[in-house]
Amino acid sequence: MITIQQLSQELGIGVDTLRVWERRFGFPTPERNTRGHRLYPPAQIDDLRIIKKLQNLGHRPKQLFALTAAERRALLNQQHVDDRHHDLQQLVTTVAAAQLDKELRTQLQQRGIEAFILEFAVPLLEVMDRGWLTGKLSIAREHLLSDCLATILKEQLVPRAYGPRIVFTTLSGERHKLGLLLSAVLFHQQGCDCHLVMEELPVAEVLSIVDFFAADAVALSFSIQIAPRQAKRDLAWLRKGLPSHIKMIAGGFALRNGMHLPGISVCTDLGQISSLCAREFPDLNLQKPTG
Amino acid sequence: MITIQQLSQELGIGVDTLRVWERRFGFPTPERNTRGHRLYPPAQIDDLRIIKKLQNLGHRPKQLFALTAAERRALLNQQHVDDRHHDLQQLVTTVAAAQLDKELRTQLQQRGIEAFILEFAVPLLEVMDRGWLTGKLSIAREHLLSDCLATILKEQLVPRAYGPRIVFTTLSGERHKLGLLLSAVLFHQQGCDCHLVMEELPVAEVLSIVDFFAADAVALSFSIQIAPRQAKRDLAWLRKGLPSHIKMIAGGFALRNGMHLPGISVCTDLGQISSLCAREFPDLNLQKPTG
DNA sequence: ATCATATTTTGTCCTAGACAATAAGATAGT
DNA sequence: ACTATCTTATTGTCTAGGACAAAATATGAT
Question: How confident is the model over A252-277, as pLDDT tens digits?
């Protein structure tokens, strides 16, 4: 039995949203304490967790609440994991923790950094996301994998004395920081001097940090869990707060639906990074002709 | 001009709290858009930031709102930084980024891990906290220092094949993860097998992770920014959800006012860790007689 | 099929009142 | 003078039901 605030943190759903769902759809139906405050029983929490996952998979609340709890559960099980990457699934679900690091490093050496990210890490993340959503991957294992991958990728970010300096970070509320890391390494590979601040920063702190690093650009990542509205608001605010000579780069699934913000380069596909780099930092080629 | 939600994230103050302050104290007095929604101007945001800092320094809202903005600013400037640690202040504010790592490592080698933490890192954190609160330390520099210290400390956490296994983590909303890291290293030094998950986890995920690691105990850190109420609720909930044979250890300033939760060891001072270890894991001495 | 327009859906914000948990102040007892 | 218990004040979180713009979907026209 948890309070509405705890539930909100647990699921990453706003308190207001939880209440309005109850009003509109008649679910959840929490019990009440003597004060009349909501107390959510475990069964409903589990159900809401499924709803949230299905929502992230593209289903809309109206449809989901029209189903019974059992139907929703069935719908989630029915979501198939992409089976093109059968080898990746094995890696994700079965390879032992101790071998994981070695396996990842082997892949990195075989493919080279760029291909490792685009052809291996990106699909890996997709399989992981999907595995987590469909309940086939434990949270703990996901953390283990993320950690392992993050350690290896961070090693690639050796400082550069030349090239445009870019600060990579995420804003408050953003739990997924791996996409940011992947993009940072790709920009680094293109010859940029990338600085990673893997924390959830309030927008005001971003200004301070960009200034401190004397960065030429700031890159931000917005995962699907962030409401597009919020991403838009924060990006617009940040653009107004930053000097105009500092470029802004934004990416992530929250921006997938064409978003045109003046003075901000939006990039929803990691494959576009090299062309984005060429566009935004044209003098890069001079310094590093073998792009 | 930012919305109430953005302001809430920016300051770490609840949306409801911001509204109730306005109702009770007549401040802040945000403008409104055409919908009647609050829009906070920059000057008031700065003032609220000062209020939040003073609140963290122990002042109460009632008193603070009775003052003018200028008086609050004066009060904050008047808060003196502890001058016993003058050398630390220099380190914090003036030592160059490149030398920082070297300086910290020198200190570590001279003092040994335990003394480095208790006699150097802890005061350092205090000076940093205070420096940030009183505006004498930029956010960016604070990040740089934290990062540098974290990197060095993490290296100390080499896995152990023996000793009680403890998972260290923080719950959703906890921004300060450095205290957790310090305690993890101290426990490690006492002979425990410490695993660090430096993320803000929902309570349900903590259960999953403790299970995954097959841990004997879980340690949680609650900084001053967390409301004691919330810490209490989460700890109680977690205790109920965890098997009784798994120990719980909680620490941090949010628990400073004697909190007695059944089945949870509370430790608000890092100096107590060795005795806490002796109490909770009595067979440690047998494996590592030179404590 | 592609684009512009109408409709539904959805999340966030509003007001004003309530109350328990916490902290502070007051009183009594060693 | 100092600690323990009681009383009062302060503070944060929760409630209800209404409102509306932004996003998503359906409809119609080219």
Answer: 988 877 677 888 999 888 888 988 89
CATH code assigned at B35: 1.10.1660.10
Nearest-5° Cα angle at A46, A43 to A48: 110
Residue B160 lies in a domain: no
A96 φ/ψ angles, rounded to the nearest 5 degrees: -70, 150
**Domain with A49 in it:** 4-78
Q: Name which of A46, A101, A181, A212 to mutate to probe chain B: the one with the most chain B Cβ atoms within 10 A of its Cβ.
A: A212
Do A195 and A167 form a contact (C-beta atoms < 8 A)?
Answer: yes
User: Is B173 found in the same domain as B115?
Assistant: no
CA distance A120 to B21: 51
pLDDT of residue B291: 38
Structure token digits, residue A71: 């139907």
For the record, the structure tokens of A193 come out as 């001097």
Count of structural domains within chain A:
3
Whether residue B258 has pLDDT greater than 70: no
Q: Which residue of B has its CA nearest to A1?
A: B237
Between chains, do A209 and B237 touch, taking CB under 8 Å as contact?
A: no
Work out the average pLDDT over B272-277. 87
pLDDT at position A242, please?
95
